[in-house]
Amino acid sequence: MSASELVAYVARALVDDPDGVSVEVHEEEGTQVIELHVAEDDMGKVIGRNGSVAKAMRTLLKVVATREGAPIALEIV
User: Fold this and answer.
1) Helix axis angle, 3-14 relative to 52-68, nearest 10°?
2) pLDDT tens by residue, 6-38
């Protein structure tokens, strides 16, 4: 499972509108940047209280980045 697939899978499990979830991947200065787009009503569920869910997703991505040997960043749009 790629990093972008992992982010999409976790986000779809969290939100009320899984069809509103989309993931875009692009490169910035040698870092793979994953942009997560969700419906406006679901933004709080993806970020979590005090950013706890977003932090957990970024922690998962650190594990994937270590395995792949390339830095990965997550942006929630």
Assistant:
1) 160
2) 999 999 999 999 999 999 999 999 999 999 999
Structural element, H or E, at residue 56: helix 52-68
- Report how far residue 47's alpha carbon sits from residue 6's, in angstroms, rounded to the nearest whole number: 16
Sign of CA pseudo-dihedral 43, 44, 50, 53: negative
Tokens of 6: 């992992």
* Count, residues in the chain: 77
Strand order in the sheet with 22-28: 22-28, 31-37, 72-76
Side-chain-side CA neighbours of residue 77 (13 Å): 12
Condensed to tens digits (0 to 9), the pLDDT of residues 34-68 reads 999 999 999 999 999 999 999 999 999 999 999 98
Closest CA to 9 of 21, 24, 26: 21
